[in-house]
Amino acid sequence: MNLDAINLGFALGLLDQIGVLVFAVSGGIVAVRAKMDPLGVLVLSFLPALGGGTLRDLILDAPVFWLSDSRYLLMVMFGAILAWIFGTRVEDFKPIRWADAVGLALFAVAGTAKAIGLGHSITIAVIMGGVTASAGGLLRDVVAGREPMLLKQDIYATAALLGGLGYALSDRAGLSFELSTLIGFSLAFTLRACAIRFGWSLPQAK
Amino acid sequence: MNLDAINLGFALGLLDQIGVLVFAVSGGIVAVRAKMDPLGVLVLSFLPALGGGTLRDLILDAPVFWLSDSRYLLMVMFGAILAWIFGTRVEDFKPIRWADAVGLALFAVAGTAKAIGLGHSITIAVIMGGVTASAGGLLRDVVAGREPMLLKQDIYATAALLGGLGYALSDRAGLSFELSTLIGFSLAFTLRACAIRFGWSLPQAK
Amino acid sequence: MNLDAINLGFALGLLDQIGVLVFAVSGGIVAVRAKMDPLGVLVLSFLPALGGGTLRDLILDAPVFWLSDSRYLLMVMFGAILAWIFGTRVEDFKPIRWADAVGLALFAVAGTAKAIGLGHSITIAVIMGGVTASAGGLLRDVVAGREPMLLKQDIYATAALLGGLGYALSDRAGLSFELSTLIGFSLAFTLRACAIRFGWSLPQAK
């Protein structure tokens, strides 16, 4: 691993951790609202925050990322505590949706970048970005017995796939990691933001 | 890997891909009927088509098969498109059940053969045939919030286990790959066909 | 691997198998009561008995433990048969809850010990104890379409985490494997027993 790879690893790790905190808080709030106990809040903080990346690492046969870096688990615990304290006081769901959109865009880029770093094709990398960004939320919904947002609601995983594709193509075109990340993040966040703000959704089969 | 192993790998790959297309279509039709958007159709095509084999490969610590062979993902996408176009026009569920029975038998044999090829015992191999054939459908049902067909409905995974056992014993008896596959496929398909046609089912506990 | 490691492996294997039988019976009884067929009983025996340990091994990238030791699958089959025969005759749920508490404590210690043996930190090891003890039951509930006990009910995974922590700290303090196991088991079982007997539970968010 050369110096560039180390910097890239550091930058990806930082992105991952911001996303982890955001997703942990939003998962924990679901648990708090459902009147779960602290362990339930912790589990529902864990699933969206680390579940998607765990599945990605299992499929790619990479070491599961949070085993060797305790900051991820600390972020989950911190997010669960924030959700526990503030979860019932937040009257309005909107801030959560926007924080979730930031996490979605961050995870999509981080997941795509990790798969590319492991030598996988653009197709596989973009799918892994989608898995990283949305599989954790799917697990959260399935475990909490809610209808999976992923399957019915407006553009969600689609935004992750677009962001991942933007990153992957920018990277392939020779742009820097920073610029590729910015492009991928912006694409995913903008599409998701439009879906939230303007009610965009994909068409159903007729 | 010698020449025989390569031919065996090729034949298994072909079987896998036919099964993948069939399962992707049947999963996609579930999504189309539930009025999901294209991304939901893609996810519900993916789960039964590649989910069981993915779980098999994770448990056996083999490289996940669709990472290195993009034809599988193309098949899923093709199956999802077919489901999207024709899903609401198919009035009768029966053709889907028969196509599903073909996929079940193909996956049972392919999963068993892969585990044997990796040096596992007949017991493990037959279980892996069952996992390959039925875990994907279980994931589809759990994610779609439907009652898992696997647990209550008539003979399904049982047919996969019988087919896997037929393949494994034929292989152990020294029969060729082609003949063993034919025997395993016929056993699984016939038992499943009888379950569909004559309403066969296993007894419940009294 | 030296002699001590072999003895430790043997002792852990024995613990694991007692826990497997207990969990298989309790899972099978859920299936029998829900009028599932024998295959459904087998699947619902398998999930709590081997599901948690399987997830632990996948995350730790260790060989899945029941692939190389057929006694585990025999135990699951034996437990499923016991559940099939006696499942509808047991009028009272209470013995199952106590057997489940024994399994919980055994799995928590065995899972923690395995992760420590693989060189992981106490934090990771304790989490893996919790995963081993409670993820299988979570899978059982999700697949059976029941509300996950883990998330809402009284102290369950919390007892597993406490037992794992007791084992890990005893082990770190230089106590023998036997004594550490006894301490961890006693802590987990006692806390779970108090939760059952006195209705202890964790507070909900206000």
3D structure, described in words:
Three copies of one chain form a homotrimer. Helices cover about 75% and strands about 0% of the residues of chain A. Chain A is globular. The first copy, chain A, has one domain. In chain A, helix 1 runs antiparallel to helix 2 and helix 5 packs antiparallel against helix 7. The N and C termini of chain A lie far apart (about 50 Å). With about 210 residues, chain A is an all-alpha fold. Chain A has eight helices and no strands. The model of chain A has no long low-confidence stretch (mean pLDDT about 85). Chains in contact: A-B, A-C, B-C. At the A-C interface, helix 2 of A face helix 2, helix 5, helix 6 and helix 7 of C.
Pair with the biggest interface: A-C, 26 and 28 residues
The secondary-structure class of chain A comes to mainly alpha
Strand content of chain A: under 5%
Query: How confident is the prediction overall: mean pLDDT of chain A?
Result: 86
> Which sequence of SSEs, written as H and E, runs from N to C of chain A?
HHHHHHHH
Give the assembly state of these chains.
Answer: homotrimer
Name the overall outline of chain A: globular
| Sheet with most strands of chain A | none
Count of helical stretches of chain A: 8
Membrane topology (chains A, B, C): Multi-pass membrane protein
InterPro entries (chains A, B, C): Gly_transporter
Organism (chains A, B, C): Algimonas arctica
Subcellular location (chains A, B, C): Cell membrane
